Amino acid sequence: MQYIIPLLFAIGIALIQLVGTNGDARTASTQNSASLAISNASALAQNLQNAYGVVGNFSTVTDSLAISNGQVPTGMANGDTISDGWGGSVTVQPDPNNSAELDEVWTSVPQADCAQFAGGVATALSVSINGSGALTQPIDPSVSATNCTADNNNTITFVFPLQG
Hints:
Elements: H1 4-52, H2 63-68, E1 77-78, E2 81-83, E3 89-95, E4 98-109, H3 111-120, E5 126-129, H4 141-147, E6 154-161
Antiparallel strand pairs: 1-2, 2-3, 3-4, 4-6, 5-6
């Protein structure tokens, strides 16, 4: 009987630590997701800038061409679709207003990652969050947070120049 109370106390402490660790793991996972997305967005843009800079515009860029030409970072290609890692997709296309600019449209960005992701791709000329209009880097975190309103369905469009 004298050992039961200390044993229950030890089990209680272990459970508290386990719950605390899970919260930390989710935070680290969110930070890793946003960091990986920032890296992938930048690498995808750089790869396409290198390929299309010779041509002088992005008028023929498509998801399937980017995938077949090996310009999509490892792990993002899913058949003829570019996956964003959050369950959504990424579309690469010429900017509708200027074919010398590339649009990367990321869908299904979670609210927890949205502001960090939108503000983290420093090489983008501009960023639009859920149709917010063009925001230029660096984006004020309060502006990102205000525009990142959908739980798991934010759309972020990055616009990149022809040369990085």
